[in-house]
Amino acid sequence: MPIKRLPMRESVIRGTTILSAQLGAVNLSQGFSDEDTFPEIKQLAIDAIGGSYHQYTNPWGSPILREALARKLAAFNGLQVDPERHIVVTCGATEGMIVAMEALVERGSDILCFAPMYENYVLQAIAAGVNIRTVEVREPDFTFTRDELDAAWTPGMAAIILCNPGNPTGKVLTPEELETVAAFAADRDLLIFADETYEYLVWPGHRHVSIGTLPAAKDRTVTVTSMGKTYSVTGWRVGYLVAHESLTDELRKMHDFHTVTAPHPFQVALARALDLPESFYQRLRDEYWARKEILCEGLAAAGMRWYEPGGSYFLWCDYAALSGDDDDVFAERLMREGGVAGVAGSVFYPNATRNPKRIRFTFSKSRQTVEEASRRLRRL
Ligand SMILES: Cc1ncc(COP(=O)(O)O)c(C=O)c1O
Questions:
Q1: How far away, in angstroms, is 193 Cα from ligand 1 center?
Q2: How far is the CA of 357 from the centre of ligand 1 (A)?
């Protein structure tokens, strides 16, 4: 049969998870919790299931959630939005990003991305029929200049993707870097797709600024956010898009014909979760930070160096003192011989001409899991 064959592959990270399970390795590859969610979040879902929220809701998102989000966006992000015009609730940030690409970027256009970058953007771009161009950023601070952005620009470019806080590096963009991106996008008339999935996981000394609050970026930014990571409910599949109404008109149509709505009762439960006090988020950060410290003890003992993350729950590591292997070889050896699974750095560079020799670990797993990984790393 003449079926369509896109040049897509399975997610390497999911593949690593499967191999790691077969080998009995401690899996620090995929960024989500291996624990249950918090009791108060579970209770919110039980309450919502007990209510009358079992049919389709408005495809733009339950009005209850959109109203709660408008309050959160004003208080936390500094974004003044109208829940009727500026928000589209999606099945996670994954659907949000692909909907943004499909609805707003003409097929055959280019999208600019900083590399290393979240693996899914490349695969989503293939599905949406657009091309990823990259600007490589490097340690010690993963910064970039306006000249580098201009050099990467093409006449067919339609958008730039930002992941802030960043996966895989944990980089949090500074206000100056955000201004540079906003000015570049305005001068080149580009959309900005700002993935702010890790907005609540920002470490001391850093501050999360939504690029959509900058005047130059305001009307051209689609903010893409996941609710799965913050509340440890990645399986509920709820995220959302925030944009100017000239953009949400298109986003809504595309979302409606993909999935109609994100699960209705979970939207209601997450609307209530947005009322949790600041102490919930502080506890979350304190706990992840403690796990990060445990993992870093193991990494240091093993002789690895890492980029000190400004946010997210990832550590971007340099293993040069341990091995000269390319990172795919090193990651597999570490899994087989050391019993710890991470993701080879090259996965995050779609256009790389050389092997970056880096490995990414997550500390999103339970304390017990992170402690076991740290113990195994110390034995290397
Ligand atoms: C940067 C980033 N964006 C989006 C996602 C996916 O989010 P969701 O589960 O809401 O689709 C992830 C998950 O790992 C991520 O790291």
A1: 14
A2: 24
* Residue finishing a domain among 228, 251, 273: 273
Residue nearest to atom 13 of ligand 1 (CA): 31
**Same domain (yes/no): 262, 200:** yes
Indicate whether 187 belongs to any domain: yes
Say which DSSP state 213 is in: G
> Domain end: 213, 248, 273, which one?
273
Whole-angstrom Cα distance, residue 132 to residue 124?
10
Number of domains in the chain: 2
CATH code for position 288:
3.90.1150.10
Sorted by sequence, the CB contacts under 8 Å of residue 282 that are 6+ apart come out as: none
Which among 94, 124, 236 is the best mutation to test ligand 1's pocket, defined by most ligand atoms within 8 Å of the CB? 94
Domain residue limits at 340: 12-30+278-378
Beta strands in 278-325 (DSSP E): 305-307, 314-318
- Report pLDDT digits (tens) over 35-80: 999 999 999 999 999 999 999 999 999 999 999 999 999 999 999 9
Closest CA to 334 of 26, 12, 33, 13: 26
Q: Is 311 in the pocket of ligand 1 (CB under 6 A)?
A: no
> Hey, is 250 helix, strand or coil?
helix
Give yes or no: residues 195 and 87 share one domain: yes
Q: Is 239 in the pocket of ligand 1 (CB under 6 A)?
A: yes
The answer to pTM > 0.85 is: yes
Instruction: For residue range 244-278, list pLDDT tens digits in order.
Output: 999 999 999 999 999 999 999 999 999 999 999 99
